Amino acid sequence: MSEQAVRSALSPQELDEFTSKLVIALKTVFDPEIPVDIYELGLIYKVDVADNKDVTVDMTLTAPNCPVAGEMPVNVKTALEKVDGIGQVTVTMTFDPPWTPARMSEEAKLELNMY
């Protein structure tokens, strides 16, 4: 396989810029019971970006029996679909590993007075 064939269609700079836009979009989605966005809460486990800018997100909830379990993946998908140039968006819910407050950012812990 040639070097050209294995190189990504996105340059590192393009990928960084696109990823920043994805994070901004993810930060617009909030857990309705907690005044912190899902990104800072650590509910986003993985974001994969394909060369054609299709995006796959693995996420969780603070608890499996969360009342918004059905809505949250739709809210994430809707927020991401607003990013210019994005391809197909797939959001997968997982509870393995289970979420814990240790996944929260310092910003989220400050917001929730968890120090």
Structure overview:
The protein is α+β, with helices and mostly antiparallel strands and 115 residues long. It has one domain (3-97): Fe-S cluster assembly (FSCA) (GMP Synthetase, Chain A, domain 3, 2-Layer Sandwich). The chain contains five helices and three strands; from the N terminus they run H-H-H-E-E-H-E-H. The protein has helices spanning 3-6, 12-26, 38-41, 72-80, 106-111, and strands at residues 44-49, 55-59, 89-93. Strands 1-2-3 form a three-stranded mixed sheet. 23% of the residues are buried. Mean pLDDT is 90; it is low at 1-6.
Structure at a glance:
The protein is an alpha+beta fold. It has helices at about 5, 10-25, 40, 70-80, 105-110; strands at about 45-50, 55-60, 90-95.
- Distance between the ends: 52 Å
* Helix/strand/pairing category: alpha+beta
Q: pLDDT below 50 for ≥5 consecutive residues: which ranges?
A: 1-6
What is the string of helix and strand elements?
HHHEEHEH
**CATH structural fold name:** GMP Synthetase, Chain A, domain 3
By CATH, the architecture is named: 2-Layer Sandwich
* CATH homologous superfamily classification: Fe-S cluster assembly (FSCA)
Rounded mean pLDDT is 90
Number of helices: 5
Tell me the name of the CATH class: Alpha Beta
Largest sheet descriptor: 3 strands, mixed
The portion of residues assigned to helices is 25-40%
Number of domains: 1
Biggest sheet, strands in spatial order? 1-2-3
How many whole angstroms does the radius of gyration measure?
Answer: 16 Å
Number of strands: 3
Strand content: 5-15%
Q: What sort of overall outline do the alpha carbons produce when their principal axes are compared?
A: globular
